[in-house]
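Trying the structure run again after the queue cleared.
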Amino acid sequence: MAQDYHITVSRPEDGCVIVAVTGKIDIASSLSFGERLCAVLSQEATKVVVDLSAASYLDTTGLSVLWESAKRCRREGRQLVIVCSAGGVRSALATSALDQVVATHATLDEALGHGRPAL
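Done. C-alpha cells:
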C-alpha cells in the first residue's frame, strides 16, 4: 500500500460520516479505500462525505470505488458528497463525470451545509 495514503473516519453530527483521505488513491490503495467506504456505508449514516481535499492523486480504480459507493447510496436513499478543490483529483472527477452525479464541494464546511451550494 502507498506509504502516503491514510484514511480517517469521523462523525461530526448525527447521521453524517466523514471519510477523509490523504495521499494517493491508486491501484495500491483502492482496495483499502473501497473496504473502508463499504464499512462506513454499512452503518446507519444518511450522509457520507468523502473528503478528498488532501488526496494527491485519484486513478480509475479509486473512481470506480466512488462510482460504486454513489450507486449504493442512491439505491439506499442516502447522500454521498465529495469534497475536492481544484487540481488533478478534481479533474479526474470531472473527466469521469462523477461530479455531475454526486454533489461536489470545494470545502468541508460547504459539504456539511455550512457554506455555499455545490460546484
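The chain has one domain: 6-111. Worth checking whether this holds up in the mutant runs.
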